[in-house]
Amino acid sequence: MRLVIARCSVDYEGRLKAHLPEATRLLMVKADGSVLIHSDGGSYKPLNWMSPPATLRVLQDGLDDGVIEQWVVQSAKTDDRLLINLLEKIHDTAHELGTDPGLIKDGVEADLQRLLAAQIETLGEGYSLIRREYFTAIGPVDILARDSQGATVAIELKRRGDIDGVEQLTRYLELLNRDPLLAPVRGIFAAQQIKPQARVLAKDRGIDCVTLDYDAMRGVDDSASRLF
Question: Of 152, 160, 161, 207, which one has the fewest beta carbons inside 10 Å?
């Protein structure tokens, strides 16, 4: 991973246009080809980014006055690109992080995965389990299943579903749909609670949302004692 702190401006061109005026920012270049631009506050999310696969070219000639380098980050799948104009480079370092062991889910998420795999019909009549923890090059899909029509379904599980979970499932779906033995693959985002913004994004991506009743799945929910 390469980390550069620089005074820069950023332009995103493609399906939409966005501009970040000159400021000091952190530029993060990951080994998978992604490039992310961070500020020092506001959010843990990047101000702008390019997802992999992408290529990075560094230009140093024929630039505007004051620009010492221009980074051209070109998406390999679309015409989208990032243009990062560096006016001052304050820090530049690279680190080999090695293979990440992946996220270790907490007890509730692990239990949800186990229970849903055993009760896959919770998602609908005719569903069948392919396997839990279906490995991909970018991480394991929580559950891979087939629906009543025999189509492949990738399921991402969370305790509390937010936008990041939808983005994670979107990346899995992009990868899985490249496999002719699995495609077409659709997604289900399942959680005990799903934030409204996550539902909106999931709907826009063609992903279904399912709210899971953890107590009912564990068999400890006494429906007879409910007032409602």
Answer: 160
pLDDT at 107: 55
Instruction: Give the confidence band of 45 by pLDDT, cuts at 50, 70, 90.
Output: confident
The reported pLDDT for the residue numbered 100 is 78
Long-range contacts of 16-22 (CB under 8 A, 24+ apart): 18/48, 20/47, 20/48, 22/87
Q: What does the pLDDT look like over 27-39, one tens digit per residue?
A: 999 998 999 999 9
Task: Tell me the β-bridge partners of 157.
Answer: 190
Among 74-83, 100-109, 215-224, which range has the highest average pLDDT? Answer: 74-83
Considering the entire predicted model, what is its pTM?
0.54
Q: Taking the alpha carbons of 220, 222, 223, 227 in that order, is the dihedral positive or negative?
A: negative
